[in-house]
């Protein structure tokens, strides 16, 4: 049997079922948003299964192609700490998709039936034979190539020759899928003999190792042992880049997932703050309208503590309902989000799952938040003098302060609209709370839209730094030389070409990139401090560098400091002469004189790429010049890839748009929550004033008059909320941009487009009218007698 206190709580909730339902929905959405924290865990579980199934490498080393026999590979596999080794070859080519040439990368597999590391697994079809290719599943998932089993694939090889192959099916590896995702290149798998035939270079350019002890110190020792073992092999002259050592539990794309999860965490915090405001407003209303009942309970002997426990129990009931619904909704939502991200970014199917830690946190927040939110309202009600509490009627007359006087001066408006405006000032605390609900929605909407615009502007600014129209690159195994330079500059349509030498290095324990460039590069650098290096410093090969601000701030480096870079040739010291605000390589690039870089890497005339400016910036002209460059360099025996600036900029803007759209959709959950809160506030307002509606109808007010009164009041509150939301949105924008920098190490500009403010105004007004529809419709349907008897 229920106690009197519990019956009182149940009665309070059932007395206004609409308000109770809205409050529970608000709390449920807030609790469900906590499920965002479960998304990376669910994805990680699936990806760890992929790591195990694909036997992901612990260490990968790159070299110029070296022919290795089975006995030599067995010797490497027998080294201490080596559990398995896999030799791979590769060649960059172009695949014909209709009339377009798309960059492609062929990965040569020594023996598909006997793979020990980075296993290529067939998803559809079969392993490729001598004249067949296997497409990576990410090719179709990302949209770079969607061929079907049995299709003919035409490749343009290193020498410019065309070769037709049959597509045997689709397969997957995590490293191959990452290349598709990051570089927008078509990844295809083939027997190693096919790759050697296309490249004209037999041998393997990569070794993938699985280790018994994958810790970094042990991995580095093992790499050194492998280097010594390979030193006895004819043709081996060292590794072309730093070894890639995978951290324990890591997988391709995990860092990006964790960074994105942190942004989801920011959205979750905003959702919880919004929910706290909404729940506090609702519970304050619930307690305030029962001031007289509180007085009666105290008059018959109830202590303040007993009265407080009654309402604490009521809020716990609300919390239990919201927690139950929100937790179930959150489990479904997190599974759906994890499945969406898994299929979109890694072409894996993430199954239904539960993160118990997140479930417990959801339940705890759902139970604890409502009593805490209601505590200030309960304390205010208990402090009311007993006589005032007993005389309370729940209605409020207009005040005489400046706001009320200002509202009364709107005599130019129709009478019913004046009544609606004055109603805004009758209960200022509630009106302000309702406006705050709208302000939260508007502020979050403006911040999310600004974030999307900032990401797009940042991408355009990054590519706007490039003055070339196309970048022609070659792999490390055959760098461009003087003959390649002559071929490029004599190609019809080429106006200017500059050599660039890029290499991966390590700076203060972080991955960084050295760009060896000319003193006056086809690149628009933007200095925040210091200077650019001079032509004399380039001529003399001075060890100076201009560092990008992102990595400089993360590593605590300033202009004038001397830094040590770890390269494949050992350590090298550079003096920092400038700091740039550019965002190349995600803000981790160092710009070094070209001659200095060539000396560091022992490539006196080498270049890993050429920046090419064409005679015309018309896309068709750039495409023609690029095709000619590809054909002439391929005919000369160079293995090349091309990157057309306008195409890459377009693709990155589209990719950022997809990501920010996802963030925006999640941010709209806060807007939805705010709209539920607004519906709750307006519905409660209509119910509380049912008797007033009866009086108005009794003295001749028509249904449309009642509708205009409440519509005026609702739209006024929405516009006030919109005005408050503008500065709030700007502050949230700055906060989110700051958090993106702190969490993701990406510096975005602070943008706040005026057009978004107008979009928010229109959206706020339309949503307010939609939210008003049902409660106002209910109000105008009251018969005067029923309204006057309403309790």
From TrEMBL:
One of its GO terms (molecular function) is transmembrane transporter activity. The chain crosses the membrane at residues 21-43, 263-288, 309-338, 358-378, 432-452, 663-687, 714-737, 757-776. Residues 431-623 form the MacB-like periplasmic core domain. It is a multi-pass membrane protein. It holds the Pfam family FtsX. Keywords: Cell membrane, Membrane, Transmembrane, Transmembrane helix. It comes from the Bacteria. GO terms for cellular component: plasma membrane. The keyword Transcription regulation does not apply. It is found in: Cell membrane. Residues 266-384, 665-782 form the ABC3 transporter permease C-terminal domain. Belongs to the ABC-4 integral membrane protein family. This is FtsX-like permease family protein. The lineage of its organism: Bacteria, Bacillati, Actinomycetota, Actinomycetes, Propionibacteriales.
């Amino acid at each position: 049997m229920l106690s009197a206190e519990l019956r009182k709580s149940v009665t309070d909730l059932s007395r206004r079922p609409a308000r109770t339902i809205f409050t529970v929905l608000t709390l449920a959405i807030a609790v469900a948003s906590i499920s965002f924290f479960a998304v990376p865990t669910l994805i990680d579980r699936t990806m760890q299964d992929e790591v195990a199934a694909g036997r992901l490498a612990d260490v990968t080393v790159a070299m110029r192609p070296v022919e290795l026999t089975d006995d030599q590979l067995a010797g490497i596999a027998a080294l201490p700490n080596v559990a398995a080794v896999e030799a791979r070859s590769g060649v960059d080519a172009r695949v014909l998709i209709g009339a377009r040439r798309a960059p492609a990368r062929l990965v040569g597999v020594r023996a598909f039936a006997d793979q020990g590391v980075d296993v290529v697994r067939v998803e559809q079809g079969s392993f490729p034979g001598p004249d067949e290719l296997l497409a990576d599943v990410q090719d179709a998932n990302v949209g770079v190539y969607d061929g079907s089993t049995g299709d003919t694939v035409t490749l343009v090889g290193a020498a410019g020759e065309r070769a037709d192959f049959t597509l045997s099916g689709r397969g997957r590896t995590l490293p191959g899928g990452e290349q598709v995702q990051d570089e927008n290149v078509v990844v295809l798998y083939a027997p190693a003999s096919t790759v050697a035939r296309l490249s004209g270079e037999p041998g393997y350019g990569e070794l993938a190792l699985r280790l018994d002890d994958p810790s970094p110190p042990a991995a580095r020792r093992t790499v050194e042992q492998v280097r010594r073992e390979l030193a006895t092999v004819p043709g081996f002259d060292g590794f072309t880049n730093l070894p890639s050592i995978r951290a324990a539990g890591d997988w391709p794309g995990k860092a990006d997932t964790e960074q994105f999860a942190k942004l989801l965490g920011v959205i979750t915090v905003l959702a919880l703050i919004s929910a706290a405001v909404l729940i506090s407003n609702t519970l304050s209303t619930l307690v305030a309208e029962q001031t007289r009942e509180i007085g009666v309970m105290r008059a018959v002997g109830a202590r303040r503590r007993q009265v407080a426990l009654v309402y604490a129990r009521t809020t716990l009931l609300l919390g239990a309902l919201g927690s139950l619904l929100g937790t179930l909704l959150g489990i479904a939502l997190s599974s759906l989000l994890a499945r969406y991200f898994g299929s979109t970014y890694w072409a894996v199917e993430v199954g239904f799952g539960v993160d118990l830690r997140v479930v417990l946190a959801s339940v705890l927040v759902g139970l604890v938040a409502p009593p805490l939110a209601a505590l200030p309202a309960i304390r205010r009600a208990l402090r009311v003098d007993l006589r005032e509490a007993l005389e309370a009627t729940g209605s409020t007359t207009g005040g005489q302060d400046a706001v009320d006087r200002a509202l009364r001066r709107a005599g130019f408006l129709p009478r019913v609209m004046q009544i609606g405006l004055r109603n805004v000032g009758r209960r200022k605390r509630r009106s302000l709370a309702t406006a705050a609900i709208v302000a939260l929605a508007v502020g979050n909407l403006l911040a999310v839209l600004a974030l999307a615009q900032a990401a797009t502007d940042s991408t355009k600014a990054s590519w706007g730094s490039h003055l070339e129209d196309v970048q022609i690159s070659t792999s490390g195994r055959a760098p461009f030389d003087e003959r390649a330079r002559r071929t490029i500059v004599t190609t019809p349509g080429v106006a200017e070409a500059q050599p660039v030498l890029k290499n991966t290095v390590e700076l203060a324990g972080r991955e960084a990139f050295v760009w060896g460039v000319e003193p006056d590069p086809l690149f628009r650098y933007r200095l925040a401090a210091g200077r650019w290096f001079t032509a004399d410093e380039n001529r003399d090969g001075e060890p100076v560098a201009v560092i990008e601000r992102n990595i400089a701030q993360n590593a605590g480096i300033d202009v004038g400091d001397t830094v040590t870079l770890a390269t494949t040739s050992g350590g090298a010291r550079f003096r920092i002469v400038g700091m740039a605000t550019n965002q190349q390589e995600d803000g981790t690039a160092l710009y070094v004189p070209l001659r200095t870089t060539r000396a560091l890497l022992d490539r006196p005339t080498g270049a890993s790429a050429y920046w090419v400016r064409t005679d015309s910036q018309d896309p068709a002209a750039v495409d023609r010049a690029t095709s000619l460059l590809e054909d002439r360099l391929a005919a000369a025996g160079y293995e090349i890839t091309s990157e057309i600036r306008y195409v890459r900029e377009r693709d990155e803007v589209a990719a950022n748009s997809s990501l920010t759209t996802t963030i925006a959709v999640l941010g709209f959950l806060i807007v939805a929550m705010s709209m539920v809160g607004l519906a709750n506030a307006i519905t409660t307002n209509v119910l509380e004033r049912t008797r007033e509606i009866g009086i108005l109808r009794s003295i001749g007010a028509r249904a449309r008059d009642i509708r205009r009164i409440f519509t005026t009041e609702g739209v006024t509150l929405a516009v006030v909320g919109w005005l408050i939301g503008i500065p709030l949105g700007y502050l949230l924008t700055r906060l989110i941009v700051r958090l993106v920098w702190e969490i993701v190490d990406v510096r975005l500009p602070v943008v706040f487009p005026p057009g978004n403010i107008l979009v928010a105004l229109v959206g706020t007004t339309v949503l307010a009218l939609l939210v008003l529809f049902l409660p106002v419709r209910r109000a105008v349907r009251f018969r005067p007698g029923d309204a006057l008897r309403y309790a």
